[in-house]
Amino acid sequence: MELADMIKKIKSRPDFHKVGMILCHNGVVRGTTRDGKPISELTVKVDRLRLETIVAEAKRRPGILDVLVEIREGLLHVGDDIMLIVVAGDIRENVSATLLDTLNRIKAEVTKKDERLL
Fold first, then answer.
1. Are strands 74-77 and 111-117 parallel, antiparallel or unpaired?
2. What is the C-alpha separation between 64 and 55, in angstroms, rounded?
């Protein structure tokens, strides 16, 4: 799971000349819950079929050349990378909206997290 490798993959496409922007998201395990309680670790489960559907839909949006997503599943610790998303497309409005929508859908429909409190 390497962000640089994902960007390199997009840049190696023969149609990369159409890209005007690449946006990335790197989600990490935070040391607290949303309400501030400290955690020691996190277990992540991923619905891979749902993820495939969401990525395919994101790739069909206007101006989008590619969308790559990697999610770690299983037991993770504070500071570990959980999810990487890379969106490449023509203009800022198309790319930023696609990244945000894709991230929000993945969080709502794909991943399940179980936080272990300290």
1. unpaired
2. 11
Tokens of 6: 């994902």
User: Which amino acid is it at 5?
Assistant: D
CA distances from 77 to 31, 40, 41, 114 (A): 9, 7, 4, 12
Structural domain harbouring 111: 3-117
Domains in the chain: how many in total?
Answer: 1
Burial of residue 15 (CB within 10 Å: 0-12, 13-18, 19+) is exposed
Q: What are 14-56's pLDDT values in tens digits? A: 999 999 999 999 999 999 999 999 999 999 999 999 999 999 9
CATH number at residue 113: 3.90.1170.40
